[in-house]
Amino acid sequence: MKICVLPGDGIGPEIMAQAVRVLEALRTDGLAFEIEEAKIGGCAVDADGVPLPESTLALARAADAVLLGAVGGPQWDALPREQRPERGLLGIRKALNLFGNLRPAILYPELANASSLKPELVAGLDIMIVRELTGDIYFGQPRGIESRDGERVGFNTMIYSESEIRRIGKVAFDIARKRNRKLCSVDKMNVLECTQLWRDVMIELSADYPDVELSHMLVDNAAMQLVKNPKQFDVVVTGNMFGDILSDEAAMLTGSIGMLPSASLDENNKGMYEPSHGSAPDIAGKGLANPLATILSVAMMLRYTFNQEAAAVRIEKAVKKVLADGLRTGDIYEPGTRKVGTIDMGDAVVAAL
Ligand code: NAI
Ligand code: MG
């Protein structure tokens, strides 16, 4: 297994160090992998003048999986758009054709009080949102702001091809098959033709997955149902824009940004794995960041790119154990638990493994 590690900026290097320790702990168990590290984001701008150097992209292309920390920070905010750290992230996603974004929203029982919803509504919550990441209105042409009839008009194009819908649908059906065989496809077919096609293709695809129960929901209702009765969902599949919004909504049901991993996959299950949070400049360099989202991203990497389900489950169980033992970083701390820093949390996960 070839893994390209990109720690990035802010808390990135701190949380990545703990994630790599967890990987190393599995090496002694017989997992064989090579790790190569490179720069992306602001640190790459400082060193090479660009957020995604050619050498970084070459390493990422040569690897089977990329593990990323986070990029960005106030010291790079004044740079022109092309040089900003976030450009590195968009660039690598596009270059690697990572169209399948998996965003789990899991509520750990020990963190039930962190949710914005009543504990009984979210206890045991475990949703997987599958978001298409390289198409839709975010990339469609034509787009722009122009002058028409003496006033400015702004416009974008919502567009999906059949093949783009089918490939993300397959990712979602395959995941549903590995979970509880329930898939909800979210669209807005009552007003948007593009999403009528989305629904049609999902229905066609379902013929290949007779064992998975496919349902459909309009996006406005889905937004409502997510806060009304989130546990009705298991796997949700949707387009780029609806997925952007719904995955953030679902993440907040778990209340803890420092706990949520993510995966972005290409057609061959090569993937980039990263925490859902950013570089947290407010706590960077202080040893306070929660490394669990990045450690759980390692588990997703082992599951989805390397098919190492047992190793993935071991990491997830180790994380549950440290939470059950009462260890908490600041972002998930509550009275009666033990507040620890980034390194102590990494130590505890490695010990639990
Ligand atoms: P953020 O996610 O970095 O931070 C939001 C809040 O959550 C902060 O108070 C932070 O301290 C806290 N937080 C985040 N991760 C944490 C962790 N692991 N442990 C404990 N607390 C944690 O989002 P924000 O502040 O909007 O963005 C900061 C920078 O990160 C910006 O430059 C932004 O562009 C960048 N960013 C990068 C992303 C990425 O690399 N994928 C995603 C989102 C933002
Ligand atoms: Mg978003």
UniProtKB/TrEMBL annotation:
It is found in: Cytoplasm. The keyword NAD applies. SUPFAM superfamilies: Isocitrate/Isopropylmalate dehydrogenase-like. The record marks 138, 188 as: Important for catalysis. This is 3-isopropylmalate dehydrogenase. The keyword Transit peptide does not apply. Catalyzes the oxidation of 3-carboxy-2-hydroxy-4-methylpentanoate (3-isopropylmalate) to 3-carboxy-4-methyl-2-oxopentanoate. The product decarboxylates to 4-methyl-2 oxopentanoate. It catalyses: (2R,3S)-3-isopropylmalate + NAD(+) = 4-methyl-2-oxopentanoate + CO2 + NADH. Homodimer. Its EC number is 1.1.1.85. The gene is leuB. Pathway: Amino-acid biosynthesis; L-leucine biosynthesis; L-leucine from 3-methyl-2-oxobutanoate: step 3/4. Residues 2-349 form the Isopropylmalate dehydrogenase-like domain. It comes from Nitrogeniibacter mangrovi. Keywords: Amino-acid biosynthesis, Branched-chain amino acid biosynthesis, Cytoplasm, Leucine biosynthesis, Magnesium, Manganese, Metal-binding, NAD, Oxidoreductase.
